[in-house]
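Homework-ish question, so no full write-ups if that breaks the rules, but can someone show me the predicted structure for this set?
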Amino acid sequence: MKTIRAVHYINQFFGQVGGEDMANVPPKVVEGPVGFGATIPALSGGRIEIARTVVCGDNYAAENLEELQKTVLEWVREAAPDLFIAGPAFGAGRYGTACGVLCGAVQTKLGIPAITGMHPVNPGYELAGRDVYVIRAKDSAQDLRRVLPLMLALGQKLVDGAPVGRPEEEGYLLRGVRVNVRAPKRGSARAVEMLLKKMAGESFETELPMPTYDRVAPARQVLDMASAVIAIGTEGGIVPRGNPDRIEAHNASKWCRYSIEGLERLQKGDFEVAHGGYDPVAANEDPNRVLPLDGARMLEKEKAFAKLNDWYPVTVGNVTAVRSAERYGREMGEALIAAGVEGVILTST
Amino acid sequence: MEDFILRRIRISQVELGSKTEIKDGCLFVDAEGLSRVLCEDKQIRRVDIRLARPGESVRIVPVKDVIEPRAKVSGGRETFPGVFSDPDVSAGEGITVVLDGVCVVTTGKMVNFQEGLVDMSGLGAEFSTFSRKYNVVLVIEPVEGLGKHEHERAVRLAGLKAASILGEAGREVRWDEETRIPRRTLPDLLESHTGLPRVVYVCQVIAEGLLHDSYIYGLNAQGCLPVWMLPGEVMDGSLVSGNCAAPCHKHSTYHHQNNPIVEDLLKEHGKTLNFLGVLVTPVKTALVEKVRMCTQALKMVRLMGAHGVILSEDGGGNPENDLMLLDRLLEKEGIRTVLVTDEYAGSDGASPGLADSTPEADAVVTNGNGNQRVILPPMATTIGYPECIDRITGGHAGSLRPDGSVDMEIAGIMGSTNELGLENLMTVAM
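A: Not a homework solution, just the prediction itself:
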């Protein structure tokens, strides 16, 4: 098997520059391994060699993260390694921060797999992002001999594109992603087993811990309706005939905006339902019942508000991933604010 | 009361023939005769009968419903009681024969987005029980100008009719396996297993309009409060799918006929638990309806003196509100509850996978993330309308690629994340 060339990032302590008194030293690059990096070829069965080592003081790193990223990315790019190894950082917060951020940057910006290791409360774990594998370490460097082989084993798998096992098998911390796997038993049998344990008061493990959701604070009220521009919008998938932007019926990949300038109401046939989560027959017959343009125009004439916005935002809110929905909501809000809109009637289905 | 008996005849081949009959484990289908009967419905213009066998390079899309062919030998006449005009509305009594290994699959022009895909080989076949069946596919073309509701009704009834007609072929044939499903009065159940925890299964059925409906003894569940059923009733044609919700987690009629939660509770009945029965509970959209249904369900479960409940979801999104509400009500009464669901965690698996949650729901079985993206290989033959793939649930513009391969979410594969737990897919945190 081909030897894996790696770049290794370590702090001033492991880089044999010095202790806390040397934490302000800027990054330097050294060809070949430094310190315990020299043990990596042997620990990986000769598979991994350290092409370069980057050493940086913890304070410098934490205080100059942007600068550090730029410098290190350039050094990594030059070396064109197969793998980037950072740390392990254990419980050291500044060190972990650098490891997490650098691993994330190397993976996303250079497309080179990265691996690190740290304690779960290390802020670097969160900063690494969900694409980076972080091996679970204890909070002290005494854990190096246990953690390093795990990092090297998983690093090899990432380079080889080999399947990665579950967290408890590989030793990594949860990345916040859920992956489909095959269970030994069908779902119904697992449910019966879980119920028997629960009724007997025995311990059991839920397969889906309850998700937590962000709370959105309501916007302030519109103080002067008479001079306000008001918009209508919907997640009910009311789109122009033929769904020109092909918004998906389910798990929409986009939101769109369409003009209603000069329209008194949505005519049957000119607008239709693209949403796959409700009976579309009535709304195809009268699209105003999901996107109430007719009523909004009436109120506009009665001067309940100054003007109806000339376009409406729309997506399909049907088993759409929450992360996508958050993004569409934010983008819609920004676009509406940019258009001078002060209030929105957002209909749901 | 006597046991209800399911007699399974193993079918390991299907062929077209001049007469519908079973010979040496092969079902011969008189396609012309079957098509003629189905076209007696004036809303149906034409029905083509096609066959799709496991391992073949065949794709069926858009699939509306899947039904297992069956016939009543005794204890009633209708395979799907209450659905047609025959005044037979009893189920789960006497003897029913099952053509085990065969399914009727309905396809044809798309009614609406919630129709799915079945591949008979390749990666897609790994996700669905229906890929392992000998499928008699009805390509149903309605008359011109038919409304969506009428179109849906015509294809639904055609599928049920075909399953009843094919099931007749099993009436005189020797069966391979017999399952006895006990029918017991409540006093009898309570007296016979005094030491065991009492369990009720609450089965959600969606009742929310076109392609989101379910039928209980032929009655649209939109007009029902929760209905108490014996285990055998659930599995004997009393529940019919209105092809509801996303393909990956819609309960097809087949799923109701083979409800795995009922099967697995029956396996433990009298050993580790006392299975009292099934509460079929409609799910509607308005909050007042959700509160109404859950309050009624709680009342009945409490009345039965249950210690534990398995509660399965139907569909996704708003039914999770019913799921969490009932879970909360039951747990507050000290009734231990396990939820059976699936999740939509995004293609990257990083989103919260449910539309609602409650801290009491500490025991959940998940049947997978429907947003998983897959590339399905091209198939030599497609039965139905492949261009629908871009529009059905789980597809997107460009899902059907020029070489015939398909880039879609498993949400579009029939039964892939079935919320009765028929498959063994699950999701783990990584």
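Now go work out the reasoning yourself. Hint: Chain A touches chain B through 58 residues (CB under 8 Å).
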